[in-house]
Write a structure and sequence with these properties.
About 40% of the residues lie in helices and about 15% in strands. By secondary structure, it is α+β, with helices and mostly antiparallel strands. A hairpin with a 7-residue loop joins strand 20 and strand 21 (about 805-810). Helix 11 crosses helix 14 (about 380-395) and helix 20 (about 595-605) runs parallel beside helix 25 (about 695-710). The protein is globular.
């Protein structure tokens, strides 16, 4: 194939001012300068280093009695030699299988103390582990982390290795079976040459995972997991004076190991442009343009962040405005700079609108890129990107831990840049980026030969499976070294949560406003809920609801779609319109200094959508492409199939099968149809406003009153009819044939007789034990015992008029039938003679009480609780009653609640997988098996 950049000059167009020349001026938006937002991003810290080399960073945040404990190790997939790909990630899994002084599952003692946000991750540069615990449980968390740092090897056995090898291989299958799931391998292999540290994926190859020996993984630990290769961050209700003796107590005796040798990394340049085509089971052709670029340690990486963000990362990006909104050649675009420590990757993509020539879209994409390399971004575009980034950083300051809180910011700076405060330098660099600098740096790196990849619909190439079935677990238990550090530290009293006071008031037109104050960060979050949702969709034209909501952000009486996107970015705000089964929502996140401007925009979207005909056609095309993409996805297919089986065709909840809508109906919807739906459902008499803000109620109410207080509905309000009760189908297995799937997705469902508004504590405890978290029986069976799955879950969904019980289990294809049998066994056993054990009961009850402070640490979590309490008709102080309710709970109550609600003999099953591999397995289960093609699933396809 010819170079992707042949004749680009002739195709290029100027995209700056003329691209927006025909837009009428939009209402002015008053926003604080980005410099003011940047100043608010501050994470004070202290640090010290133990004699063994462990670097410790302490950040004090007293807003809640919790502490985030994060340990980052200087080892990732870039350190893996040839033949050992996937080792860093495989070892991360082994770190959760117990240590010498805590030999069980790592999550068990964490759950007992009420931990939240606990997990571990691996990428090319590092491996990290984190948990947020009540301050009273900090000793236990430090003991556990120090035990797996210094006292792990005696607990690593062949049985555990075989088990986690199988789990990781199923994690790999789960990702690979998705549409575009093999892209991750093509990116790194296409940009980095063989032998380059970033050439291979973090998940590794099946062959290398198969070959991993016990000696290999133990040597990996000895090489990389010493304290001198780690950073420990404690963030929360702790200070350095208190922390230092604790850290010394638990980590001080661990001996230093070899220091990690950083691999030599260069940023490669392709010898010439390279273009490849890959077939996949996708519904939409996707085009990529990719380059290897500098990593985090090069200041030009931050410049690329901004420049590529303007090109394709903003809602008002150049690519989105031209390819999606103006020329309608694509249904989606994206561009971002994926930054690693020592290199990076610029990825630019376009999803081709079905019916459009992909080659034409590729040429147009190349022309836009070529012009951008010549003209660069405008100052105003850069300012919007900077504001959005600073706003996002401010929002991240509220959480001490988890995947993106303050501990992450400090640890990453320390590990990658030897500076916990690097985030400040990075933000300063970003704030100083100029249009000329952005243009020059972008041209420097993207004028080099490009790697072009097109993923188009078609049969996949043969899948590289594991060499054989996972090894069966040893019949005799592996010998584990007995620990010498004594018992786990106890946990002091954890005080019950002090949930923020919730106040209710009303605007002049009667809209109720429900408010709580949180002042940890200068942020306001709000959501307007409407008594609408998917169940209000037009039965004869499914998709009306979804298209109406989508178009509300695509134009008002005074703003175009592009102007709405630009206004949000200037404000650093996020406004989203969406829905659940029973409610429609308009949500807002904004820095509080920009509350007035953000509310003006939110009100314009809510009250004045104009449904421009051109945007109706564009969103129609995007919706049809979305429906096709859902049908190509295993989870999408399963979710389309299940509602008809558990609700029956007459229940309004049967409409939830129409993910995106009925394609035939979407094709014929008119602008008037959308306007009529909007008038009937998105109106003040169906609205309720929930707000969590650092600003006082008087100020917040006045702001909402000014924008929504005079809003009046127009015409008759819509009504929903739930007279038709759910009618579940007879037990059977619906097998959706998806050839070449290395994994099957199992979905099981039962409609329960549960009252949605009944107290959830007893039944919730039972379903948690069955399938609600990592330690649940279903997950421990399929993942930790059998290694057939990366993770299985089950639980209740409390809708307004129905409470279904759903189990979800992605499993390797050759264990589909046996996995269903195991799920049946777990459910039947629990409901007969194997009810909740005292250990399970005590662990669940104590965890539920102790985790409250961490669970409601953020304003977003408080906002969600306020909505749930209102929807489920609970008192506003329900969270403060939870501890008392759990302390009064008994084992017989839990078992009785489960037996009254659940009946495994009534389960209906949906399996998405390769029928040629799994049909025979399913036939042996004693249930009727119906096989259908994906196109026969869901609304408009003839039902199930």
């Amino acid at each position: 194939m010819k170079s992707a950049f042949v004749s680009l000059t002739a195709l290029a167009v100027v995209l700056s001012a003329p691209a927006y020349a025909q837009q009428a001026p939009s209402p002015a938006v008053a926003a604080v300068p980005v410099a003011d937002l940047v100043k608010r991003v501050d994470i004070p810290y202290e640090q010290f280093v133990l004699a063994n080399g462990l670097r410790v960073i302490i950040h004090t945040d007293r807003k809640a009695p919790i502490v985030s404990v994060a340990v980052w190790y200087d080892v990732g997939s870039k350190h893996e030699p040839k033949g050992k790909t996937g080792f860093a990630h495989l070892f991360e899994h082994l770190m959760f299988n117990g240590s010498e002084n805590s030999p069980g599952e790592f999550f068990e003692p964490l759950k007992e103390v009420g931990a939240t946000d606990y997990n571990g991750t691996t990428n090319a540069d590092r491996t990290n582990y984190f948990q947020t615990v009540p301050r009273a449980a900090l000793d236990r968390a430090l003991f556990l982390e120090s035990d797996r740092m210094g006292y792990l090897l005696g607990a690593v056995t062949q049985g555990k290795l075989d088990e986690q090898r199988g789990v990781v291989q199923n994690e790999k299958r789960q990702g690979d079976t998705q549409p575009y799931g093999l892209l991750r391998y093509k990116i790194s292999e296409g940009l980095f040459p063989v032998g380059h540290p970033y050439h291979h994926s973090t998940i590794g190859s099946m062959a290398d995972l198969d070959a991993a020996s016990l000696d290999d993984v133990k040597n990996w630990f000895r090489q990389y997991y010493g304290p001198n290769n780690a950073v420990l961050v404690l963030a929360g209700d702790i200070d350095a004076k208190t922390a230092k003796p604790l850290v010394e107590k638990y980590f001080g005796a661990i001996k230093a190991g070899p220091k990690t040798a950083e691999p030599m990394v260069t940023v490669p340049t392709l010898a010439e442009a390279k273009a490849e085509v890959m077939k996949d089971r996708v519904a939409v052709t996707r085009i990529y343009r990719m380059w290897a670029v500098p990593g985090m340690r090069d200041a030009e990486s931050t410049v690329l962040d901004a420049s590529i963000g303007v090109l394709g990362g903003l809602a008002s990006s150049r690519l989105d405005n031209i390819l999606v909104k103006q020329e309608k050649l694509a249904v989606g675009v994206g561009a971002f700079n994926q930054t690693l420590a020592q290199a990076g990757m610029v990825l630019i993509s376009a999803d081709v609108r079905p019916g459009v020539d992909a080659a034409k879209v590729g040429e147009r994409l190349d022309a836009i890129i070529a012009d951008y390399l010549k003209t660069g971004p405008t100052a105003e575009e850069l300012e919007r990107y900077k504001t959005r980034t600073a706003s996002s950083r401010i929002r991240g300051l509220e959480s001490v831990g988890g995947f993106g809180g303050k501990a992450v910011t400090l640890a990453s700076g320390a590990l990658y840049m030897n500076d916990p405060g690097y985030y400040k330098k990075q933000l300063a660099t970003l704030a100083a980026v100029t249009p000329r600098q952005a243009r020059d740096v972008t041209a420097k790196w993207l004028s080099r030969p490009v790697y072009s990849l097109t993923i188009e619909p078609g049969a996949r190439a043969a899948y590289a499976e594991a060499a054989g079935a996972p090894k069966e677990k040893a019949k005799v238990a592996d010998e584990v070294v007995k620990g010498t550090r004594g018992a786990l530290p106890g946990v002091a009293e954890v005080k019950d949560i002090d949930f923020p006071a919730v106040t209710r008031t009303n605007l002049s037109n009667g809209i109720e406003l429900v408010y709580a104050q949180r002042d940890a960060v200068p942020v306001t979050q709000a959501i307007i809920t409407f008594d609408a949702g998917v169940t209000s969709d037009v039965a004869s034209a499914l998709g009306t609801e979804g298209m109406t909501l989508s178009l509300m952000e695509e134009g008002t009486k005074t703003r175009s779609s592009i102007q709405i996107a630009e206004a949000q970015e200037r404000l650093g705000a996020g406004i989203g319109v969406g829905s659940s089964a029973d409610r429609a929502t308009i949500s807002l996140f904004t820095p509080s200094p920009n509350l007035a401007g953000s509310l003006d925009l939110m009100a314009d979207i809510a009250r004045n959508p104009s449904f421009p005909q051109a945007e109706v056609e564009r969103v129609r095309n995007q919706t049809l492409a979305q429906i096709a993409q859902i049908r190509a996805n295993p989870a999408g297919l399963a979710q389309m199939a299940m509602p008809a089986l558990i609700y029956g065709k007459d229940s309004p909840y049967a409409k939830t099968a129409a993910l995106g809508g009925d394609a035939a109906a979407v094709k014929t919807l008119t602008r008037d149809d959308l306007i009529n739906y909007y008038k009937a459902w998105i109106r003040p008499d169906k609205a309720k406003i929930f707000v969590v803000s650092d600003r006082p109620l008087t100020e917040v109410k006045a702001a909402f009153e000014a924008k929504f207080g005079d809003w009046k509905g127009e015409g008759a309000a819509g009504t929903k009819d739930f007279a038709a009760k759910p009618q579940q189908a007879a037990p059977k297995i619906l097998l959706i044939d998806r050839p070449d799937s290395p994994q099957s997705l199992i979905l099981a469902g039962q409609m329960t007789p549960v009252d949605p508004f009944a107290d959830p504590i007893a039944l919730g405890t039972a379903t948690e034990v069955l399938g609600g978290d990592f330690l649940s029986r279903i997950n421990m069976n399929l993942r930790e015992d059998k290694a057939w799955s990366y993770g299985a879950r089950g639980g209740l969904s409390r809708l307004e008029h129905a409470v279904p019980f759903i189990v979800s289990a992605p499993v390797q294809a050759d264990k589909t039938g046996p996995a269903i049998a195991e799920i049946q066994k777990e459910l039947k056993g629990y409901l007969s003679d194997k009810g909740i054990t005292k250990l399970e009961f005590d662990r669940s009850v104590v965890s539920a009480i102790r985790r409250q402070a961490g669970q409601y640490e953020t304003a977003g979590a408080v906002l969600g609780a306020m909505q749930s309490n209102d929807f489920l008709r609970r008192p506003d102080d329900y969270q403060e009653q939870i501890a008392k309710k759990y302390r009064a709970l008994t084992i017989p109550q839990v078992d009785a609640a489960a037996r009254a609600a659940l009946d495994p003999s009534k389960l209906v099953w949906v399996v998405v997988g390769d029928a040629s591999k799994v049909r025979a397995q399913l036939d042996s289960l004693g249930l009727p098996v119906e096989v259908v093609k994906p196109e026969a699933v869901g609304p408009g396809a003839g039902g199930n």
